[in-house]
Amino acid sequence: MSHGYLGKMLDLLTGAYNRADVRNAHNSLPLETNIGRLFDTFSWGLELVHEQADKILLWDDLDNAQGTYNKLINRIAALKPAGEAVDEDAVAALKSKFTAALDNDLNTSLAVTALYDVLKYDTNDDTKLAVIADFDRVLSLSLIEKADARRAELKKQAVSGSGEFTVISESGESDAGIEALLKARANAKKAKNFAEADRIRDELKAQGIEVTDIPNGAKWKRI
Questions:
Q1: Which of 14, 93, 106, 200 would staple 185 via disulfide (CB 3.0–4.6 Å)?
Q2: 86 close to 106: Cβ distance less than 8 angstroms
Q3: Where are the alpha helices (DSSP H) in the chain?
Q4: Tens digit of each residue's pLDDT (9 = 90 or more) over 82-106
Q5: pTM (2 decimals)?
Q6: Which residues does 113 contact at the CB level (< 8 Å), separation at least 6?
């Protein structure tokens, strides 16, 4: 892909020396002057930089998409099926939004937004899981399967007997600052410095973080 650097540079900077270079550049012909050849080398470097920048932006987009998908899986994994009856009124309301999104020229971004509407909807987790499973028959994102695997992974971590301190986010999000405070609190308790452990717990509470102690670790969530 050409971004036209050579033509622009020659047009602006070498026109006073030799207009033939400008014509030749536009027609992909050999350049006639040394300054034209010099700018040809510069423009090649700029083209390369631009192409690499485009690739980096594409990689960033892919990374962001993967991050969004992982967060969605973590949110679904945080749902706790309890064998409750599915709320058919909630199903109908949520399905209506999802169908409208698909009817809008198969607008998948709106369809994904509809998934987050399910997670926020005021209904039980069994209903949310049923609706998400229904939506995923269209989206084919393996949401329930991945969420089940994530839930099993978290459960395994919670009952791990490895002796290592494990920090589990109930929503699946990662926060290095909170994890560091929880580990510092664990170290304080291990050293029988209970005043420091309580201080850290109060600090986390002030940040809206609820902590639950588990074997070999702690769980946390935002409240």
A1: 200
A2: no
A3: 5-13, 19-26, 34-77, 88-103, 108-120, 125-139, 143-158, 176-190, 194-206
A4: 899 999 999 999 998 888 877 766 5
A5: 0.49
A6: 101
